[in-house]
Amino acid sequence: MNISVTSKPPTSFPAHILDVSIGQKILMAVTGFIAFGFVTGHMLGNLQVFIGQNQMNSYAEKLQSLGPVLWAIRLFLLTALVIHVWFGIKLKLEAWAARPVKYKNADTMKATLASRTMIWTGLIILVFLVYHLLHFTVRVTHPEFAALTDPQGRPDVYTMVILGFSSVPVSIFYLIGVGLLSYHLSHGVASMFQTLGLNTEKWQVRLHRIAWTATVILFLGYASIPLAVLTGCTLLVPGGR
Ligand code: HEM
After folding, report:
1. Distance 43 CA to ligand 1 centre (A)
2. Higher-confidence residue: 5 or 92?
3. Which of 8, 163, 176, 217 has the fewest Cβ atoms within 10 Å of its own Cβ atom?
4. What is the pTM of this model?
């Protein structure tokens, strides 16, 4: 069925639906932006592994020493993530319910693959995140990581990361995870600009380029660590250089 809006929509109910859906998209954009800020900061933190064991472990120790502040940040990030996932799934289910029949019109043709697969890349990233937390934070997949300490007696996050990526399947899983994360963000960042009304016609191409550049940098930053371990880069040696 083709619905075309030719006049102002009637007030109350339909307008209310519109407002709610726009409100949800704004929530998606804001929480997506928070997650984007986190992954950028986390990548910069992780890249300190290339400076060496002392730098990486003192950075990790400083973060841990934040105590209740760290927990407040974690709670804030978790809330943003839950809102993002919840409304992402809800909006997608509503879109599917509104268009039960697959359509082949110009709009679909124009939608990029990244935009059409957001729900799937998002769900795979969620699985990746759960594995990652079990791997490097809770360490249930490798309980021996919890016992690693450096010469100063601090938790040896540096060696943990190198040992973690010494497994080829694990590194490949990480490469896929950060690849899909970057792909998800390539549309997410551009779509965020659009929802927040910053995507004027003049800026559309420019913002798309900015979104792609940012996400390629993120991918290279994250992927460089497992790739360096797998290729035997001498910058990363268990126990430090
Ligand atoms: C090569 C890629 C990555 C590496 C080497 C890495 C490394 C780490 C390490 C070492 C920790 C534990 C820090 C500690 O206990 O002191 C950690 C925690 C975490 N990582 Fe990653 N990470 C990577 C990718 C990602 C990605 C792509 C995401 C998001 C999608 C992510 C989200 C998190 C979160 C949420 C935590 C928990 C932070 C906390 O407990 O406060 N990581 N990561």
Report:
1. 8
2. 92
3. 8
4. 0.87
